[in-house]
Here is the input.
Amino acid sequence: MAEDKECHSVVDDSAEEVPSKRIIKFNPPLYKQRYQFVKNLVEQHQPQKVADLGCGDVSLLSILKYLKCVKELVGVDINEGRLKWNGSRLSPCVGDHLDPRELDLVITLYHGSVLEKDCRLLGFDLVTCIELIEHFDSEDLARFPEVVFGYMSPAMIVISTPNSDFNSLFPLSVFRDSDHKFEWSRVQFQTWALDVANRYSYSVEFTGVGEPPAEAEDVGYCTQIGVFRKKAKTTESDVLEHPGERVYEVVYTTSYPSLQQINYRRRVVVYLVYREVNKMRLRYQVSLRQHELEPESTDPGNPRRKFISGLPVHTPTEADKAMAMTPQPFCIGDKFYVPLKRIIAYPRLGYLCGNVQELRELLADSIELNCDASAVKVDLYHCSDYC
Here is the structure.
């Protein structure tokens, strides 16, 4: 139902067999402009739970899964085979495991009609209906608002549909897709949308994508879009008032690795600690070669030497000032030590760990610490230094 395949013979692609009017092409293609519109909206409003009704080949979901704010994505479509065929497009790849997301992400595809009520679609921040409503007959169109606006009642709803005013520019004066039951003018769509918004306590703004040619601006956008916002915020008690019926069938579900999961957070922390410690170790070697090491005390029997970075002097930033307040790395014999209090001062590691004790726990069994577990302990020289 979602589609992007609006009659490619009149929109986006060439149609040499119909030479009567100039073919209108959009760059980017019209379906990409619709998806980009939704992507921009998500980036602006930061919804965490997003559902795409009539998700089709899951193209929109495959774009939204990369947005950091999103924690749950749901797609609903009547075509079960299409969902099963395209579900793998939403699976995590190797890169998702190597560089986990900040937040958890769960993606679920449901087989079912968007005109049925399912309690798993309650409490969403955004529901999208991209090129969907024009596939409804009059009876289904009458049921649609009660299900989406009345029952689901998300904070925001985006509905796009063809603008029939634009059709006069196409080679044939027909519907853009053979499955369309209607195509509305701007006045017809806005009349319907304002009525629905008024009935269910939403506001609505109108816009679109697919600008007309310079000589035909009066026809408006090729795709018209209504952005609905709920006037009163939905509370948890409002969601619980609805019956808990589940009518959709789960066709596909997956979850993404994230830094909220302890195993992935540990892996990232260990990697970052190894990286920072190795940088300091190599700088220490440079300082040794430049004879920039000084005794930490006048006692010749004290083998502990302090760390001098040998880096050019520059105007210190706030981060530099904070780092200067932490214990310095040092060397005893052929072992190099970096205090955990210095490691936790790196902003990224401080964000991931919170405090030294949590850092110590995450490093346990992965990186060697000194006897009192206050510093990372590594060999000053590695065989890799000579490769």
Observations:
- The mean pLDDT is 87.
- Residues 283 and 289 are 10 Å apart (CA to CA).
- DSSP finds twelve helices and twelve strands in the chain.
